[in-house]
Amino acid sequence: MDTLLKTLAEPKRCEIVRLVWSEEKAAADIAAHFPSVTRSAISQHLGVLRRSGLIKERREGTRRLYSVDHQEVARLRAFLDSFWTDGLERLRDLAESKEPMKGMT
Amino acid sequence: MDTLLKTLAEPKRCEIVRLVWSEEKAAADIAAHFPSVTRSAISQHLGVLRRSGLIKERREGTRRLYSVDHQEVARLRAFLDSFWTDGLERLRDLAESKEPMKGMT
DNA sequence: TGCTTACGTAAGTAGCAACTTACGTAAGTA
DNA sequence: TACTTACGTAAGTTGCTACTTACGTAAGCA
Questions:
Q1: Per-residue pLDDT averaged across A9-20, rounded?
Q2: CA distances from A102 to A69, A76, B44, B65 (A)
Q3: Does residue A63 lie within any of the structural domains?
């Protein structure tokens, strides 16, 4: 669970999620938004985002198009919502379990 | 802004916030919930949480009592809420500004 | 005045994470 | 076929971070 939080805690990855929020974008287009770092660095960030499940990859020719996995985002959001509002005891179980947020889809 | 996210991305700090969510607790009581690490480690986590503004400190004799700063938590929550739902353009400005989330109190 | 309690903090270490350069590879193109 | 495009990945470096041990300090107590 904190994997998702750690993933979003990195500003560039947070920005990447925002970039592919409503439309899929190719890796090169995403990298173009970060002139300060290498394309390779962005590719690795995309790898982290993909492994965490926050974004999905689709191949099209030589290009790889990325888009947000809104379902996974919804699970993270549900977790945080329960964190803010209520169910603190239940949240404890979820946060400590090895298979977090079971049945929250 | 990502300072708050980074602070919560650490599991132990997330748990500490949960511990002092509804009632203030002394540092020793908090440390007692983490037998695997030293009291010093928890003290440093408390420092991070305090500097990020997520928790408040109150002295009482030799003891230091900690409690959640719900107002600061509300600001983080508001930021994330706008992240999930809407205002992606406005969110971009907030996330990139040096003085984030101005006027969101 | 000592002594103890309840803390924070300084200093050092190990591991991780974000980055770079260099290389590998699959898909189009001449 | 050879070349280019569009990407991922391996390898190495640097800096941060979570942790430990050791020490400092303010408050209460004998």
A1: 96
A2: 18, 12, 32, 34
A3: yes
**Distance between CA atoms of residues A100 and A95, nearest Å:** 6
| Chain A neighbors of B15, CB-CB under 8 A | 92, 95
**DSSP run (H or E) holding A100:** none
- pLDDT tens figures, B43-88: 999 999 999 999 999 999 999 999 999 999 999 999 898 888 864 5
The answer to whether residues A24 and A60 touch, using CB atoms and an 8 Å cutoff, is: no
CATH number at residue B9: 1.10.10.10
Distance from the Cα of B61 to chain A's closest Cα (Å) equals: 30
Tell me the C-alpha distance between B54 and A101, whole Å: 24
